[in-house]
Amino acid sequence: MSALESKPSLDDSYMLPASESEASTSIQIEPTSAEPQKLPIRSSFEYGEEVAEDEGLLSGKGMPPWLAGQKRARLPSVAVIASAILGAILLLLLILALTAGYRFERPSRLRGYNPTSGNDLKLSGEDLGWNISLSDEILAQRSMKERECLMAFPLNLPEIKQAVEWTKSLGGVTLSDVEHSGEIWHARLMIKDGRLFVKRFRPAYQSRCQAVMAAIHDAIITSLEPVPDIEFVIGLDDTAPFEPATWGLARRLDLPAWLVIDYGFNAWPEPMIKGWHTFLADVKSVNAQMTWRQKAKKLFWRGVYLSEYREQLRDHTVNESWADIAAVDWGRPEETRVSMSHHSRFAYVAATEGGDAYSGRLKYLLSTQSTVVSHPLRWQQHFHPALNGNESSPDQNIAYTKDGYNDIVETMKKLMSDPVRSEMIAKNAEKVFTRRYFSDAARSCYWRSAFRGYRSVMTFEPAYDGSEVDYESFMLMNELEWRPHK
């Protein structure tokens, strides 16, 4: 079933904080008023009402000048008072009658939608609002509350939901699951009391582990709501481990897994791709120089021929004038490497998975404002539910071949003969990904929803045991033990 055909439901029990009566403990926060305010730390993650809302008070000092010196008015008679009370009661009854069944909600900080309680909220593939417009202010907001996240980014949920259901079927995550996976994979992490700790660490390939931990830490410290205590492992090889306590980069379509957000959303310095926002600024600069219609009408790809799909792409386009397909020689990167922002100069860009793994390039290609062409994907990342390859949909945001890259010639002829639709695909990708699911807001929302989902299937309570090192220290030393002043 495609992402468009799926009907993700947001009435899952792990996504929103429980009502205040279900809180097990509380923490003190610094309020804006003189009296301290308490926010509950949730022991269960069920839909409920917003808690700890601020109440504004209107106050003033002294009397208006025009009242100064006025004589005290005569007190009204008992009959007048009784009439006033009766009138107020009748008015109140009228208001109650007119507003029966109406829900009063606190206005959301998000413009463009009215929040509703999770229990009443049902979204399906038909009403997800693929091309919803969110302001730059909202897209940069890393502190959205969970209900706002659900409304703004519903397609964050499917990957979390599949992981929750799978883990439930295994009986939940046990401490022994975490201990076992922690001995194998790259980092054993604990979120406790709103802080990130590292219990075990061994470097992953390149800078992946540091990038993912930085993103996790950012999601914790920007949260306006309590973050649940959890303990888990991250394994950052190209394929996600098939283990309930381990979070990975991508999963095979037929295998469930917990997914992290790709490290490249932080930065990927090894292939010379700088920070995410630097990349977006470079792309914006290129696209400011040309419209989609003015881009080179070619299918562009650079990479290493590591997989059957990549070889198919090379072999089937070798004699095509519309193809610019070539390999990168990392022994001579200055001569053969092409920046990701340079891809934006081409109307069509090709996406290819690796030999037996996902490709970290897709997120960049979807952000180039070019039309992304891909073979059917075998690997799933956290944002893939938002991909729409339906050729009959006005919201299509990626073009798929049908038979690997064996039919790339037919696919390209069809796309190039319909530039209106090709341009629409590129514009939809920008709206859905660059302007929505790849935003700072969406990524922070995904992390915190994943924390809640994982907490809902844990069978143990994370605990300090002396092995943990706070993330702030680890970030500077990049190890768990060190000699002073070494």
TrEMBL record:
Residues 1-40 are annotated as: Disordered. It comes from the Eukaryota. Signal peptide: none annotated. Keywords: Membrane, Transmembrane, Transmembrane helix. Pfam families: Glyco_transf_90. The chain crosses the membrane at residues 78-102. InterPro entries: CAP10, O-Glucosyltr/Glycosyltrsf_90. The keyword 4Fe-4S does not apply. Residues 226-461 form the Glycosyl transferase CAP10 domain. Residues 21-35 have a biased composition (Polar residues). PANTHER family: GLYCOSYL TRANSFERASE CAP10 DOMAIN-CONTAINING PROTEIN, KDEL LYS-ASP-GLU-LEU CONTAINING - RELATED. This is Glycosyl transferase CAP10 domain-containing protein.
